[in-house]
Amino acid sequence: MDASVQHEQATIPDGEQLSSVMQTIAEHKGCGTSGGSGKASCGSGAGENDLPPDIWEKVKNHPCYSEEAHHHYARMHVAVAPACNIQCNYCNRKYDCANESRPGVVSEKLTPEQAAKKVLAVASTIPQMTVLGIAGPGDPLANPEKTFKTFELIARTAPDIKLCLSTNGLALPDHVDTIAGFNVDHVTITINMVDPEIGAKIYPWVFWKHKRYTGVEAAKLLTDRQLQGLEMLTERGILCKVNSVMIPGVNDKHLVEVNKAVKSRGAFLHNIMPLISSPEHGTVFGLTGQRGPTAQELKALQDECEGEMNMMRHCRQCRADAVGLLGEDRSAEFTTDKIMAMEVNYDIDSRKAYQEAVESERVAKVVARQEELASLAGQSSDIKLLVAVATKGSGLINEHFGHAKEFQVYELSTAGAKFVGHRRVDLYCQGGYGDEDSLETVIRAINDCHAVFVAKIGGCPKSDLQAAGIEPVDQFAHEFIEKSAIAWFKNYLDKVNSGEIQHVVRGDAEIRQGALISAA
Question: What's the DSSP call for residue 230?
Fold first, then answer.
């Protein structure tokens, strides 16, 4: 057990106190519905009782369907589906699909048998790995035999692992019964438009029933099939997440209509992601200079759509062979050569025991946040601001500034700390020294934040951050993120109210593309 787990467990009461704490977290759980609108509140403070027990069981340890769970649980993708049946202007099939598997490429394509062995190897090594997804590198349902053979093998050998599927939706209606038959509880559909005129600007062609369609006709066929498939899945009680790529000037304003359309058809979660359009990826949008959104443009659209339904804000647009917590990639540890040489002892009982310890981490984190949140009671302020956090996971401020590959961003207000996204960055520390060029990119990536919370930071980057108007905060090292952020915010409000400082609105920030995210 690592130090972070030991640290958190040290804060957990025992005996009757633990039972009380468990009730606290039961009242908190990440995903629920609130009010009469039917809007779910995944990742908020909604209680477990806001969801039917069977739905809660599906999301409580799924890192993509619960923002809180993503701090604690891992997922993996297996690249068994190389073929695709549509062309997207943000995708070059020399690489992974941009909507599911940027940055980087699939290192190895696997057979279903190789994938099954890899899943057992990873799940035995990473006991908090709870989810197996097939997301490409093409479309899983354009490769149905390989996809469903993989699910069959995993269901037989690792029945405790949740099965997920990500698809563009073109072939979805033809496979809904098979998906349900394999107990695939989670399906992600990438839906970028419900207006074929807009769709024609995104999709050059689709291939269906041995025929290639282009232009508006292709987009009309695609959107009809996507929405039909979504309805069929939700009618069967399968949780559906909708991914949408935000393309400024093309579908950015239209995604509000997409949000309404998918909500009305029962989607559980909507994930609006930034377009990745670096020219070196060789995509149509990249080569024609189509820009991606800024950080504040993306947040504004997510905020607007959040009034209608759950928004996923912790997506990492993972590789199709990603392994580990969201935001990390441990796939290099599990190459085909390595896993085929392994003797795997898949022990469900030991995995269960480890995950029970992970749940104890969540208990301590929730209790700490609620205790600190109580200190804001009675505070009245319209101030909302963003802070960045360097973390290696487990809900802790436990990463050195110079070692951070990404920063998690929280919005602070008198309502508490709300996770709103992440910012990838290039490593500042390079072999023991600081890279000043990288520091500039880090500052641009978190330029809309008032502070950055770190476990440790050197004098030079601290001075540069302060000069840029970003406060480096290291006094909460190895403490819980939300508890610490709320404590800092309360002190910030006190300073504003006393006149010691004046609150200013920060500028925009850059969404960094192609930054290093693989594990060191």
Answer: H
